[in-house]
């Protein structure tokens, strides 16, 4: 049943959170964030799945199909899939900025350890 | 090379820190609590037998009559929720701008702002062969003169098999160089094809990201000089802005003609033809242009980031060099 | 219907192992490859779950965009690499 997908998404999220909380290397922290983002993708697409569903591609206008029939049609939910597509794009954009900041911080503090980067100024 | 400030706790920068974890026990407890909350939340989610929500049914119903496309996901992405994709595409644009700003090399601060850039420009006009002037160029040249003693850059084909070739090879072997060109052409056509036919899955973003992959393939195979003509920010940024402007134009025309942003103002074409889908095709194509150039700029800006160790101004004012070549 | 669930559970198991590898592996480049593994296996999961659009985007992000960004960042952090110029990264020329 689809609950396994949901539980996998929850475990992925916790794995990523554990990495972000306890890792010291800047790059590994950002990878933890990527794993957390991956868990949201799995959750969104798993929620879009309907039993016996195929990809939401229509061969023709669902003629003679009332709104109610469509409710239980064997088609996955396109709107949730759009949410996941948007999340993937934002994930790439945000990761690029994180990595640039991490490289600049590593160059400035000459170390990749997040403990050394913590020195606040002033 | 001794680090500039000796009090840096880790002198071999770049290597992973010694102890890998930072208080894992506490992290474990917090994560376990988070897991409990998540499992409770996830149990309440609708399972796979739930009816489709109203908005999904609406998307399925209007996909063909209003937008003329048989692909509801594209209709949702570029049609009825076009404003959301507009926000997401411009967020990617903002991310590219911030990456470019962060990875610019440090302009020496002791002159007027822009003086170094103006000097570089003048340098390039009068003495183009000399390339980037400034003290960094001289420092790099001095270092290269010192270094001339060791072996010249080995040609990868001359290196015997089994050697750690990639560590000091100057370029890829001839096999990679020749194979990369046809592969790049085929991949570029395949990635544009991904977005060309509106009624098939796949839209502007995957196609644009695939084009960036082709650019990175050419860079890795043929070196920076081969791709630097196309990859210069001066070339890519206008195209990216054009893509963004096209997206805004599509939205605003929809607003004026059909008084709702990103509404379909193109006459419907018959199903399953290249023009099917109304403004979706235009939107997807302009997003392709913007994502391809945007990601390429971001990756090459990250690649071109200089090693300018920015020493703390106050700490080692004495011997902190402005830029380490 | 069981065929579908077998595929689904296989993909989920693969994603979980790759994610555990990403978190618990100390070598940075190795965990980047594991992260790419997560992305690619997720793309297979999306195909199984009937989401071709998302699978397109995820396979490209998981296999091209993210690994390239991470490996370039890891390369940039290694500050002891002599900058040779040709294959090395020249300063992004501004004009």
Feature tags:
heterotrimer; A: 122 residues; mainly alpha; Helix Hairpins; B: 325 residues; 12 helices; 59% helix; 0% strand; extended; disordered C terminus
Task: Give a written overview of the molecule.
The complex is a heterotrimer of chains A (122), B (325) and C (95). Chain A has 122 residues and is an all-alpha fold. Chain A has a single domain, classed as Helix Hairpins (Orthogonal Bundle), CATH 1.10.287.3510. Chain A contains four helices and no strands. In chain A, α1 packs antiparallel against α2 and α2 runs antiparallel to α4. The mean pLDDT of chain A is 84. Chain B is an all-alpha fold and 325 residues long. Chain B has a domain of 168 residues. Helices cover 59% and strands 0% of the residues of chain B. Chain B contains twelve helices and no strands. With 95 residues, chain C is mainly alpha-helical. Chain C has a domain of 52 residues. Chain C contains three helices and no strands. The radius of gyration of chain C is 18 Å and the shape is flat. The N and C termini of chain C lie far apart (59 Å). The C terminus of chain C is likely disordered. Classes of the chains: A mainly alpha (122), B mainly alpha (325), C mainly alpha (95). Chains A and B meet through α1, α3 and α4 of A and α1, α2, α3, α4 and α12 of B.
Q: Structural class from helices and strands of chain C?
A: mainly alpha
Instruction: Indicate the percent of residues in helices of chain C.
Output: over 70%
User: What quaternary form is this?
Assistant: heterotrimer
Largest sheet of chain B: none
Radius of gyration of chain C: 18 Å
In N-to-C order, the SSE pattern of chain C is HHH
Report the structural category of chain B.
mainly alpha
Range of strand content of chain B: under 5%
């Amino acid at each position: 049943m689809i609950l396994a997908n949901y539980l996998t998404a929850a475990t992925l999220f916790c794995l990523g959170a554990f990495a972000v909380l306890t890792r010291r290397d800047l790059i590994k922290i950002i990878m933890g964030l990527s794993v957390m983002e991956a868990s949201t993708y799995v959750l969104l697409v798993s929620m879009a799945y309907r039993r016996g569903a195929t990809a939401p591609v229509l061969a023709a206008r669902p003629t003679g199909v009332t709104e109610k029939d469509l409710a239980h049609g064997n088609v996955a939910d396109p709107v949730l899939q759009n949410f996941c597509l948007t999340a993937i794009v934002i994930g790439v954009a945000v990761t690029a900025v994180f990595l640039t900041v991490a490289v600049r911080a590593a160059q400035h503090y000459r170390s990749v350890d997040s403990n050394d980067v913590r020195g606040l100024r002033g | 090379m001794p680090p500039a400030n000796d009090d840096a706790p880790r002198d071999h920068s770049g290597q992973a820190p010694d102890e890998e974890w930072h208080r894992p026990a506490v992290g474990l407890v917090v994560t376990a609590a988070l897991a409990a909350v998540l499992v409770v939340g996830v149990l309440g989610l609708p399972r796979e037998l739930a009816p489709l929500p109203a908005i999904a049914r609406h998307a399925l119903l209007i996909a063909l009559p209003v937008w003329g496309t048989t692909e509801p996901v594209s209709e949702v992405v570029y049609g009825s929720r076009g404003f959301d994709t507009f926000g997401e595409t411009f967020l990617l644009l903002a991310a590219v701008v911030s990456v470019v700003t962060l990875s610019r090399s440090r302009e020496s601060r002791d002159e007027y702002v822009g003086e170094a850039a103006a000097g570089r420009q003048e340098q390039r006009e009068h003495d183009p062969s000399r390339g980037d002037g400034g003290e960094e160029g001289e420092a790099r040249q001095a270092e290269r003169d010192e270094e001339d003693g060791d072996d010249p850059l080995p040609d990868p084909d001359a290196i015997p098999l089994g050697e750690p070739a990639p560590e000091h090879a100057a370029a890829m072997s001839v096999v990679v160089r020749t194979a990369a060109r046809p592969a790049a052409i085929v991949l570029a056509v395949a990635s544009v094809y991904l977005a060309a036919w509106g009624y098939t899955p796949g839209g502007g973003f995957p196609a644009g990201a695939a084009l960036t992959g082709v650019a990175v393939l050419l860079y890795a195979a043929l070196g920076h000089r081969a791709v630097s003509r196309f990859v210069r920010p001066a070339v890519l940024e206008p195209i990216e802005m054009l893509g963004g402007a096209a997206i805004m134009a599509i939205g605003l025309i929809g607003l004026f003609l059909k008084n709702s942003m990103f509404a379909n103002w193109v006459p419907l074409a018959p199903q399953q033809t290249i023009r099917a889908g109304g403004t979706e095709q235009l939107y997807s194509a302009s997003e392709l242009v913007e994502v391809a150039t945007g990601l390429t700029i971001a990756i090459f800006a990250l690649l071109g980031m200089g090693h300018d160790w920015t020493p703390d101004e106050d700490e080692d004012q004495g011997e902190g060099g402005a830029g380490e070549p | 219907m069981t065929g579908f669930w077998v595929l689904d559970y296989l993909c989920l198991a693969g994603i979980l192992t790759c994610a555990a590898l990403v978190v618990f592996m100390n070598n940075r480049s190795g965990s980047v490859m594991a992260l790419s593994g997560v992305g690619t296996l997720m793309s297979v999961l999306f195909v199984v779950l009937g989401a071709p659009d998302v699978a397109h985007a995820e396979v490209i992000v998981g296999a091209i965009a993210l690994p390239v960004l991470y490996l370039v960042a890891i390369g940039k952090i290694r500050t002891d690499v002599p900058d040779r110029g040709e294959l090395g990264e020249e300063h992004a020329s501004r004009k």
